[in-house]
Amino acid sequence: MAKKFLGVGVGFPVTVPNGAIAAAEYEESVRQSIWIILGTAKGERVMRPDFGCGIYDLVFEVNSPSTAGKVSQAVREALLLFEPRIDVLDVQVTPVSDSEGSKLLISIDYEVRATNNAFNLVYPFYLEMGAG
Fold first, then answer.
1. pLDDT in 10s for each residue of the chain, 132 residues
2. What's the 3-state SS for the chain?
3. Which of 9, 27, 86, 117 is 20 to 30 Å apart from 108, CA to CA?
4. Which fold has domain 2-127?
5. Where do the structural domains in the chain lie, given as residue ranges?
C-alpha cells in the first residue's frame, strides 16, 4: 500500500487519550511534520541546529510585500530540505493586520508524492510590532 511510505508516528501535540499516546498516520503525519518544520526556528534544536524554518529571523520586519517574499522563500527552502514526502506546489503569503497585531498568513499548497493527493495548509506567522 502506497500510504505506508508516509509513516505513522507520535501525534503533535502529544496527547494521551484512553491511556495510549495518540498517533498521526499517513497524510496527517505529513501535515503535522510541515507544522513542526514551520514552527521551529533554526538553531532551536540543540542536536539539529540546521533544522527549522528561517521565518523567525524576520519576526521584527515590517509587514510589507518584501517581507512576504522573504517568508515565502524561507518556507519553500525549509520544506524542500526537511519534508521529502511532498512536492510544494505553491506558497502564498498574505499580510493581515487586525486587533491581534500584524501577521502573515502562509498558505502552502502541496502534493503528497506517494499518493498524489493535494492539500493546503495555512500557517499564521505573527510579526512583532516594533517601536517606531
1. 455 555 666 556 656 667 766 666 668 888 988 999 999 999 999 999 999 999 999 998 888 889 999 999 999 999 999 999 999 999 999 988 776 668 899 999 999 988 899 999 999 998 875 444
2. CHHHHHCEEECCCCCCHHHCCCEEEHHHHHHHHHHHHHHCECCCCCCCCCCCEHHHHHCCCCCCHHHHHHHHHHHHHHHHHHCCCEEEEEEEEEEEEECCEEEEEEEEEEEECCCCEEEEEEEEEEECCCCC
3. 9
4. Nuclear Transport Factor 2; Chain: A, (3.10.450)
5. 2-127
